[in-house]
Amino acid sequence: MAVLVGKEAPDFTEDAAVGQTQQKITLSQFKGKQYVVLFFYPLDFTFVCPTEIHAFEEVKKEFESRNAVLLGCSIDSVHSHMAWLRTPKNDGGIQGVTYPIIGDIHKRVARAYDVLDEGAGITYRASFVIDKNGVVQAQVVHHRPIGRNVEEVLRLLDALQYSEEHGEVCPANWHKGEKAMKGTLAATADYLAKK
Fold this sequence. Notes:
By secondary structure, this protein is of the alpha+beta class. It has helices at 48-58, 60-65, 78-86, 108-112, 150-166, 185-194, and strands spanning 13-18, 21-26, 35-40, 68-74, 101-103, 116-117, 122-123, 125-130, 136-142.
């Protein structure tokens, strides 16, 4: 599996379901304007996936307040996404989700990000935090039975933005509003001494 951190995020242009409409999404349309959280999930109409998709929707405003756009992606078609978006939550559906879900039926995006399990024909659970310059700053990949922690994805975005703004580093378990530190041994020693 390729490590994309520190590299330009692979660009793509694919169809996405946004509610019941189909739109073309190009990753580079956000470059210079917004942060992007691109996340892959294995399949529509499955089990862990809708819990994650709804979890992202529940904190969508938090991502937007940080000038970040959410993009979901699976190897299903846009038509499958739209059918799932019509399915009520209490029937295992994702009705009410408002961010774009990319239809990667040709598996181009999954291969570009190296998260496709070729043997199974579906992706792992993967999250990429991409900065406004189009560079991957965080990459987290899980096996399919393990659901991701959406709050951790938001925390990664917060840490990235804090570091960009203040030039400091964010220690373990850092959260927005907490003290960070300078990237020096003296600052680390001082931080640890206070713990």
